[in-house]
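no rush on this but wanted to send it before i forget. theres a chain ive been looking at and ive put its sequence and its fold in token form underneath. i want to understand how the tokens follow from the sequence so walk me through it. thanks a lot i owe you, the record is right below:
>
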Amino acid sequence: MTTFQFPKSFRWIALLALLPLTGCEDPQREVKLQWREDEVNKKEAAVIQREMALAKEKQVMEGNRLDLLAKEKSVASLQKQLEEEVEKTKRVRREVEIRQLRGPIPQISADRVIVIDAASDEIMFEKNPDKRGAIASTTKLLTALLVVEAGELDKIVTVEESDTQCSPVRIGLKAGEQYTRRQLLTAMLVKSSNDIAQALARDNAGSVEAFAAKMNEKCLALGLQDSHYVNPHGLPARNGDEPFSTARDLSAIAKACDVQPAIREIVKLQSYSFKWPNGRVTELSNTNRVLRSAGYCDGMKTGYTDAAGYCLVASGERNGKRRIVVVLNDTEGGVWRDAQALLDWALKA
């Protein structure tokens, strides 16, 4: 095998190429390069310092921002507390003024009572408002509400034999007689006739039992948990399933009636001329005596049974203020006195 060899002159050239070239560089250029490197390093260090200073400044600013937010939150909380205190002071001052205007709460003999502002639902006075018990013919307010909500008050109702089979008070309806719903509704609310209540219930729901179920459904719709109805008139049940309600629940039903123009127009009547099918007219005097003794009273409904005692739901208005009073389990003489005194007291302010 033949080996190729470079000439000696070529080998010296290669060795020279491997020698350092630094000795051939310009010294001034080296100095300039070093100066530039130093300047770059200085600027890098300055940038790093500035970045560190900026980060620290940002940290301080963030701390100041959080401190400011905390202070703003504290100021807002203090302002809210101040506003609440101002409102509380106004409310207390107003309550004091109202108490001074109304004077002391009347002394009453009724066992279950509530007085409400019909517009705001404010409870102005209460006594055993959630105590369950019989409510007698004030039951007919819920009967009236369902009848009015069904509409067609000028529709004819034909009396059936079952409508006439009830305890007094009765107006004396006879099977086959025909009246409008409005006639029957008016007579029921003015004179509290139980046979009329049964006729309206049967006309509305097909039977007294079906109507009672609708009454209880309405109570649930109104959010009432302490009421149970078994008939449209409030008389004691024959099967032991006794009806009951409370002053509070009854005030809610009264308020629902109070916004019905048809009911408002009826319950304020001091009397009503009931016309029989044969043309005879019977003058019915409203059982609510407070309508005649207090000009500010404009409704609503009376009631009495042994279990309920003497009852009255009374409504009234004066100087733009509207109130509803519920008085249950009172005495024969006390019911009128208590209801009128409470209504007058509540309407003073």
Summary: The first helix runs from residue 8 to 18.
